[in-house]
Amino acid sequence: MSGLAFFDFDKTLLRKESGELIALPIGVRGLVHPWAGLRFLASGLMYKLGRVSREDMQFIGYSTYRGGRLDTLITTLDGLWEGTMVPGLSPAVLARLREHQALGHGSWVLTASPTYVAAAAKRGLGVDGVVGTRMEVGGDGRLTGEPFLPLMQGPEKARVVHEVAAEAGVGLDDCWAYSDSMADVEMLEAVGHPVAVSPDPVLRELANRKGWELIEHDAITPLSKQGQTL
């Protein structure tokens, strides 16, 4: 294996937050309590307005799944992949994923969302692995709505990058990381080829200052056009 590519999920591989895409479909199927779903959607609006912090929004999202059966949720989300998730994929990032795969690079999805939310990407996109935030499950097979800490973001994503690269025998200089957010800056700094994807303003400024590659969701830019060592 000559390289590895690591992709954030929400607002990177997907153009939007995964929770926005699946909230209605899983809500109408009764997999989350209606009030929990409404709270999540309302909080999402407040988050966009800067009234709710990213961390608070994450924990509100996790709590939405409280009481749902994990096996039912996994089956449902797998069935929603084609109709709900695929239309939300970023054209530019999907093109990069396919190019990495064509070059024989390993590909991984790392996400702060619960693992089961992105798990269908392993089948649907042929990635080598999906690692997300682990959720607590009670003895009755139902989710408690509580995540195990630390969340799969920041230092944890960087840790996984180091572990996967070491196991694959790939140097970090031959690794790519894609993210939209400063929450993943440790992962971006860990690799030889950090890529900011339609980034938030702070990450955009950092990427410009450090000379990192920037790509936008609707502008497909092949690796070969970036002077990368492939």
Structure description:
It is a single chain. The chain has helices spanning 9-13, 18-28, 34-48, 54-63, 70-85, 91-102, 115-118, 120-124, 155-168, 185-190, 201-210, and strands at residues 4-8, 106-114, 129-133, 135-137, 143-147, 175-179, 193-197, 213-215. The protein has 230 residues and is α/β, with parallel strands linked by helices. The chain contains 11 helices and 8 strands. It has a single domain (4-226), classed as HAD superfamily/HAD-like (Rossmann fold). A 6-stranded parallel β-sheet has the order 3-2-1-6-7-8, sandwiched between helices. The protein has a two-stranded antiparallel ribbon with strand order 4-5.
Using DSSP, what is the number of strands? 8
| Unreliable runs | none
> Given the C-alpha coordinates, what overall shape results?
globular
Number of domains: 1
- Tell me the Rg in angstroms: 17 Å
- Distance from N terminus to C terminus (CA atoms, Å) equals 12 Å
Main β-sheet description? 6 strands, parallel
Helix content estimate: 40-55%
Number of distinct helices: 11
Q: How are the strands ordered across the major sheet?
A: 3-2-1-6-7-8
The sequence of SSEs as H and E is EHHHHHHEHHEEEHEHEHE
- The residue-averaged pLDDT reads 90
